[in-house]
Amino acid sequence: MSVQALLQAMSDGRYHSGADLGALLGVSRTAVWKHLQKLEGLGLPLETVKGKGYRVPGGVELLQKAVIESSLDAPARSFLSELDIVHSVDSTSTRAMNRVAEGGAHGYVCLAEHQAQGRGRRGRTWVSPFGQNLYLSAVVEFTEGAAALEGLSLAVGVGLIRAMRGVGVTDVGLKWPNDVLHDGRKLAGILLEMTGDPSGVCQVVVGVGVNVAMTADVSGQIDQPWIDLLSLNPDLSRNEFAAALLNHLLPLLQGFHSNGFADYQKEWEALSVYSGNLVRLQTGGAGFVEGVVLGVTQAGALRLEVAGEEQVFSGGEISLRPVVL
After folding, report:
1. In a 10 Å sphere around its CB, with 0-12 CB exposed, 13-18 middle and 19+ buried, how is residue 237 labelled?
2. Counting CB atoms within 10 angstroms of each CB, which of 43, 47, 245, 279 has the fewest?
3. Is 38 among the residues known to form the active site?
4. Which helix (H) or strand (E) holds 210?
């Protein structure tokens, strides 16, 4: 019996006795219990009631490759070379990087139900409980080197907002350089990782994490305010949103080399949650700068008015925090 088969049986949220599960899957009750422990090891909540059996409270909507692929538009299909859906992985971006090492990874997309070592910017951990959110990494190849990537993470943020609006989630905005927020609470994040020739052919792994149906029991592991899509649209399906995201993200990645961030700059600025506000920009170590957000450049760098003059900031170690007055 595979863990996948057990997951399918338990996904309905109903009670299943050990005897019923054993009969359904053709194994002993002892074997059923061992496999149920594997589910707990993935972080899936499991409830046991004597006389009733076992259940996953509330059930779980597993990602389904056939459902997602059948919902993809032609532009997304033309970019996609492989849709790889796994139950548990160290991180989708690590798996994508390994796929890059094998060669021919352009258009590869990995989705996972669970990440054991999900990661965000600046070495932070991305909390990745099983079957609750969306953990996605996509590979895109560029022939013009790292210069062609300027503003890519910001453009991906615009794609995320478009996908959310397409499934009825509104009142969301962007925090420079790579966060999606709703009412000051984090909804999604973006992480880019590059390998190859910085001045020639290179591959970029675009990692996206979206809170879809996060349970409160993981809140203690998250060091900032957060919200999930299900709170904003209770009828949302994970598979529906996965397809919507790919329908926006994959064409964006395919066409980004043509005009770069210039096609997304004005839309990004309109979505900026701190536009016109006085902010504090952490520049690395203990250093910081305070200024008013003016917008971003065509390369995706942040434009701040500091002491009456415009200054531009870019780089992977920059974080933005509102100033408390």
Report:
1. middle
2. 47
3. no
4. strand 202-210
pTM listed for this prediction? 0.88
Q: Tell me whether strands 108-115 and 82-89 are parallel, antiparallel or unpaired.
A: parallel
3-state secondary structure of 167: coil
| 115-124 tens-digit pLDDT | 875 555 555 5
d(CA 137, CA 321): 27
- Residue 196 carries which DSSP code? E
- Written as six digits, the tokens of 284 are 């690395």
- Is residue 25 within 8 A of residue 32, CB to CB? The reply is yes
Instruction: Retrieve residue 6's tokens.
Output: 């057990």
Integer CA distances (angstroms), 67 to 59, 61, 72, in order: 18, 12, 9
What's at 50, amino acid-wise? K
Burial class (CB in 10 A: 0-12, 13-18, 19+), 307: exposed
Please tell me which residue in 55, 175, 186, 238 is annotated as part of the active site: 186
Half-sphere exposure for 156 (CA within 13 Å, toward CB): 29
Dump pLDDT digits (tens) for 209-246: 999 987 665 555 565 677 889 999 999 999 999 999 99
Pairwise CA distance, residues 211 & 227, whole Å: 7
Here the tokens at position 246 are: 């790919």
Question: What are the CA-CA distances from residue 156 to residues 11, 87, 107, 120, 121 (Å)?
Answer: 32, 25, 15, 15, 15
Order of strands, sheet of 278-284, starting from the edge strand that comes earlier in the sequence: 309-313, 302-306, 287-296, 278-284, 319-322
Please state, in angstroms and rounded to a whole number, the distance separating the CA atoms of residues 299 and 303.
11
Residue 186 known to be catalytic:
yes
Cα(69)–Cα(243) distance, integer angstroms:
7
Is 34 considered catalytic here? Answer: no
